[in-house]
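From the shared-data thread, chain only:
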Amino acid sequence: MSKIKRRIGMLDSGLGGLTVLSALRAMITGVDIVYIADTAHVPYGDRSLAQVAELGARMVKRLLVHEPLAIVVASGTTSAAFDAMGWPQSPVPLVDVVGPGARSAVASTSNGVVGVVATNATVKSGIFERKILELRPDAVVKSVGAPALVPIVESGQWASARAREAVSGYCASFLRSGCDTVVLGCTHFPHLSAWFGAALGPQVRLVDPGAACAQDAVRLLAGSDPLPGHLRFEVSGDVEDFGAKATLLSGMRVDALEKVRISLGD
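Structure, as tokens:
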């Protein structure tokens, strides 16, 4: 019998990675998940890739203590930072959201014109465009940085008129460019998918990289022994605030919360 326990580590700057967590739990049961939310340093999109990579590496180190089978980098900006600065050493696989998102976009588009909406740091890195063009060299990629959206989600305003108006403004260039597919290149953005759908219309397909990332993680769990399905959250900022918002966003019971310290330059 297998003695490998079904446990996943997951990291993000805040609430965004819950989109990946929810997708993972919908695909497979009996998975213990340890999720680190670095809310003390959110938003990552305003930071340098070097800073984001350092913060991400510290979260990977913390997660390894829990002996996961894999670690999901449930953050487009952190994935971009690791791609640019170097992936941290890890004895277990690190699963990112960008590669799966690019694959899904290429599979989805009919006309080859793909939009990417992400944080400024991710857009500046060019990672989504590179990954998409590797798979489909004739594609046209229109990337838009959306710095207002992560703070909107983190402040709990995902259902507000402010969120609707911000999303609509960022979507205008995708409509002008003739995109038939738009990648939500930050895991926070699927929390705003209703507004993206309303702004872009039914003719534009939305790609959630988190769902494809979750599929990659599930494949790594093949043959492992089920666990009770516990969720543990480690939060670097306000623990109670994160717990309340995470419950509202995910519909899951979020009560196993611990305050942790994640710092730069120590």
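The longest strand covers residues 7-12.
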